[in-house]
Amino acid sequence: MRKIILSIVGVLLIVLAVFLAKKIVDSKKSFKPKAQKVVKTVFTEVVKNGAVPIVVPANGNLTAKRRVELYAEVQGVFRKGNKLFKEGQIYDQGETIIRIDASEYAASVQSAKSNLYNQLTSIMPDLRLDYPDIFPKWETYLNGFDMAKSTPELPELTTEKEKFFITGRGILTSYYNVKNLEQRLSKYRIPAPFKGVLTEALVTEGTLIRGGQKLGEFINTDVYELEVAISKTYSDLLKIGEKVTLTNLDKTKMYTGKVARINGRVDQASQTIKAFIEVRDNTLREGMYLEANLDAKEEQDAIEIDRNLLLENNKIFVVRDTVLDVIDVNPVYFTDKKVVIKEVPDGTTIMAKPLVGAYTGMAVKVFEDKSANIKG
């Protein structure tokens, strides 16, 4: 009997515990937090179409417009001059850059000139007797013949008899032989073709120079050229004489140049055309890296925006009554940071800065900026 009573009591206690637990659970209120809707703020601009200048960037290294590579045409020992043949040496126009020892060759030239003079002297008696009408001009020529100077040009042969007589005595042959030797003698001295500076020196005084050997490079420092490659799309828009703004690599100084030449051939590999920009400045040096901005044309009824605002290459976000939407646009020119687009109606409010997670239909709050207008 006792066991039955204890069993009944145990069951009652279990039922009571379950009942009390249910009451406690039911009496506990659950509070669910209410989700707050977050509205992101966007920066916007109002479109006003206009003329957008298309500026084509280009870059390259400066080269001297006038440069001469110095080569020896004769052989001999490089003799010391008034100035050392060193890089950076400045020479005036006509000043001797290189002088090669020509004493031996000069003696052979003088020998040939002496032979010509003797021939002329030997024909003078015959000219006096047989051709008295042409004798005076040949006498004048002989009197003006100076062995220390360049051989003067022969008198003009006016008649057939005179031509036959002079040619038959070997005068013309000797004369042109002397002129040929004198021409070669002049190659033992290399003068400066213009005022400039020596940028490369490959020999020194006392060196034995051989024919065909490169001696150095000489440039004019007044005018430089910048060779740039331009897309063929804008090749027909560039004009010779057009002004170009140039900047150095550090963007600390600006120069003004002009388009001097435009190549008439398109590079088949890159589909670009070479243009040459002429620039003058005392601070420039050959080999300097410069960046150029070429004004190709103006695109009408267009605007310029950041390139990262363009979606799928032909769409942009617009704001309609605090809701994002997309519209189709027509991009006409790209740079690394900007893009010029068309077919955006005036007065359209567009997104001015990228928004992370933006999508069509997204509710946004427009940042109030009184100066937020984008113009072409």
From TrEMBL:
Top-rank lineage group of the source organism: Bacteria
Taxon lineage? Bacteria, Pseudomonadati, Bacteroidota, Flavobacteriia, Flavobacteriales
The UniProt record lists the Multidrug resistance protein MdtA-like barrel-sandwich hybrid domain at 67-215
Supply the name of the protein: HlyD family efflux transporter periplasmic adaptor subunit
Q: Which InterPro entries match?
A: MdtA-like_BSH
GO terms assigned for molecular function: efflux transmembrane transporter activity
The UniProt entry's GO CC annotations, sorted and at most eight, read: efflux pump complex
Q: Which Pfam families match?
A: BSH_RND
